[in-house]
Design brief:
It contains 11 helices and 8 strands. By secondary structure, it is an alpha/beta fold. The structure holds flavin-adenine dinucleotide (FAD).
Length: 292
Amino acid sequence: MTPDLPIAELFAQQRPLRSLEFFPPKDDAGVETLRATAGALRRMNPDFVSVTYGAGGSTRERTAQVSEILRGEFGFTVMPHLTCVGHSRADLSEIADRIHTGGFRNIMTLRGDPPKGEATFTPYKDGLRYASDLVALLKSRHADFCLGVGGYPEKHPEAPSAEADLANLKRKVDAGASFVTTQLFFDNAVYYRFVERCRSAGITVPIVPGIMPVLSLKQIQRFTAMCGTALPQKLITRLEVAAENTEVVETIGIDWALTQIRDLLAQGAPGYHIYIMNRAKGALTLAAGLAA
Ligand SMILES: Cc1cc2nc3c(=O)[nH]c(=O)nc-3n(C[C@H](O)[C@H](O)[C@H](O)COP(=O)(O)OP(=O)(O)OC[C@H]3O[C@@H](n4cnc5c(N)ncnc54)[C@H](O)[C@@H]3O)c2cc1C
């Protein structure tokens, strides 16, 4: 199979790219459901899709399995994620070689969150401490890897300051990352300020906004508390009015995301990355809304 095109080459075409994020299911039944979701999303023709990397255990094998399915069966350009958690340098080098041999050329390169039950990140024995270290390792292993990294418009929760966090992002790009995908956010002004600060700091690569259509108030309150993203009061109020009516909540979530994406594209964002939570409906409704 021909190796994937580096995503950086797609960005160079100067058109907004549309990407979708999957997570690896826990079991075989989940893989079948994901196949159905991927089949439905093929119509949307995303420029690329990504597959997250679990904190440990069997879902990690599933990242490789699902990446192969999405590439081989559905013809998507796939960007597997990889984290430093629980891996030595030797493990990471071996995984990098396997990914490369599989024809994948794009990797979302991350440090990873501490495993469940652990409050702080501890590098694995002979492992890496920061995503910038992993960027350097992957690039030294295969210079033709095209690497994305995470960016935090509202600051990474562990960073002592927004400035320190920005300096870290610069380190990741200087180490060889080709683009940044942001943590989810709900207020576009936050993204625009972040991009401005990145440009002033000399970060010139594309900064792709990460958008999550809300599916449930409780779930989004949990996510945003974990990752330090602010939930606008206006959105909370709307979701509270919808109470627990799933359909109404989803409609509100999609409507909010659609408004965000329309504005982002009008302001020249390099595309948008949707955290789809392995569901086709939201992404398809967004695609339909944006086609009009
Ligand atoms: C687009 C995206 C996709 C994600 N996908 C996954 C996934 O698939 N699996 C998963 O487990 N998690 C995922 N995450 C979550 C991510 O792993 C966490 O946010 C994690 O806590 C930080 O990862 P990072 O790669 O940003 O780390 P880093 O860039 O290494 O930063 C981690 C912290 O260290 C600080 N730091 C970095 N370098 C230095 C330095 N030299 N000196 C001092 N401080 C420093 C940073 O400011 C930050 O506070 C994703 C996040 C994003 C935005």
